[in-house]
Every structure is written in structure tokens, then in C-alpha cells.
Amino acid sequence: MSNARHHAVAALFVAVVLLPALISGAREQQRRAVQNPTTSGRPSPSPTDDLSSREFTFVRLTYDSPHSPYNYSYGGAWRVDFPEADEHFVKGIREWAGTNLRVSSSAIQLRATDERIFQYPLVYIVEPGHMELTEEEAASLREYLRRGGFLFLDDFHGEREWRRAQEQLRMVLPEYKINDLPLSHPIFHSYFDLDAVVQVPGVAALVKGVTYERIDSVTPHYMGIENENGRLMVFMTRNCDLGDAWEWINDRRYPALYGVMAYKIGMNVVIYAMSH
């Protein structure tokens, strides 16, 4: 089968099979969670799911955000969309995306200074516009990237959060620039062929009938940081909210167009991080 035909079939599979399956599975997960709540609110690892035997485990970075309003509503900015976004995304790539990756069913959460972070090829950071790294954490992330790790930043909107995200990344990689990535970049063709910069909206924006969260976040950007050898080390979806799309994939009111796109982008990022 040609590459073009493979991508076309894979894309059709996601649109027709993946989304309905995710909706059904996520609803059942939500029902079980209500009936059997845990004290921590975190997904329980499967006793048979040995993380060390898996090629890919979804890792969410935990960090301090002492000046963020999310401290009151979520217990910290890093907890936005957690744990549903992680669980639903992992379920999608594990059970329905058609890859040969051995994906752990349990997502984990780590601080930048946790030595275990070096065992994982990709770390997801939500709400970097509220993140406040220490110098020690920034140094650890720099070493993580130097050793081949990959950062995936998502869900930050408007100029104020953009400035904060830039400040945090300058602490980690002061000598590198952040650039918009052309759609010809390999990350947009590592699994699915993505041919447009789509603004994946959060639920709060959709309620207002728009796809942007703030008046100064109308234009979406897929951006990144490459090292001197051209290896992409950091990918970011600015003025987008993939985490919300993953979290709300079980709600019929969330448009399939954006839900499918969020999974495509996420899948491409995983495959790129695993192969570069």
C-alpha cells in the first residue's frame, strides 16, 4: 500500500472508528469513576501493566504555579484537564490508533527534578503560561532535552501567557529561538499528514460560539524549538487546547472535527518523539 493510501485509510479509520469508540469507552470510564471514586483522583495503574516493559508512557509534568487562579479551582495549573485528558488520549493511542507501539495504560505525573523523567521520551506540559520553574527544574529539563527528550506544550492563550511560556523556555534553552513550524516539517507527517494549522478549541470558547479563548488569541500557532542539528526538541500548540479536546471527547457537544484533529496532532507528536 502506498504511503498516501496508508495515511488516507488511517485518517478514515480515526474519523469513523476511533471517535465513536472513544466516546463509548470514555462514558463507561466516567460511570465507573463516579461509582468508585478514589481519594487521589488519579488513575490507578493496572497490576499487569509494567511500565518498564512499555515503549511509551504518557508523562505529564507537575510544577508550581503560585500566582495562578487554577490553584483554587484545580489545585494547580498542571492539573488542568487531569486526569481525564491523559486517560482518554492514552486509551485512543493504545487501543484504536492502529500503531505497533507498546503503550502503557497508565499515565504518570513527574516533576522535572525526578530522575525517572530520563526514562521517558516525551513529557506533556499543560498551561505553561502559568508555570514557574525553579532554576533546578530548568536545569533538569535542559539536561533531559540534551539527552534526547522531548517537551510538548499545550493550552496557553493570549499574549500574557505567551510571554510567560517564553520566559520559562528561555530558562531551559536560552540560546535557542522559538519558531512557527512549516507544515512541511516531519512532525506533521510522522503518522498522519496534517495540512493545516487548526485551532483546537477548549470548551469555554465553544460555549461562546468561537474557537479562541481570548481576543488576543485568535490565531493558532504550531511552534517549536530545534537544536543546531535540526532536531525538534520542543513542540507547542499555542492558542489551542488539545487537552480539553481529549478530556471532552466523551461529550457529543464537542465537535468531532476538533476531537479528531487533537488526536492526530498528539499521535504525530508521540511518533516523532519516539523516532527522533
Please explain how this structure is put together:
- The protein is of the alpha/beta class.
- It has a single domain (3-275), classed as 3-Layer(aba) Sandwich (Rossmann fold), CATH 3.40.50.
- It is built from 8 helices and 7 strands.
- It has a 5-stranded mixed beta sheet.
- Helix 1 packs across helix 3 (84-96), helix 1 (3-35) crosses helix 8 and helix 4 crosses helix 5 (158-172).
- The longest helix has 33 residues, at 3-35.
- It is globular and about 40 Å long.
- The two termini are 24 Å apart.
- Residues 1-48 have low confidence and may be disordered.
Secondary structure topology:
Elements: H1 3-35, E1 59-62, H2 70-73, H3 84-96, E2 108-111, E3 122-126, H4 135-146, E4 150-156, H5 158-172, E5 179-180, H6 203-207, E6 221-226, E7 232-238, H7 242-247, H8 256-275
Share of helix, binned: 25-40%
Order of secondary-structure elements: HEHHEEHEHEHEEHH
Strand content: 5-15%
Please state the structural category.
Answer: alpha/beta
Largest sheet report? 5 strands, mixed
What is the C-level CATH assignment? Alpha Beta
Identify low-pLDDT runs. 1-48
| CATH fold-level topology | Rossmann fold
Strand order of the largest sheet: 3-4-7-6-5
Overall average pLDDT? 85
| Strand tally | 7
Total domain units? 1
Q: Give the CATH superfamily.
A: Domain of unknown function DUF4159
Radius of gyration from the alpha-carbon trace, in angstroms = 18 Å
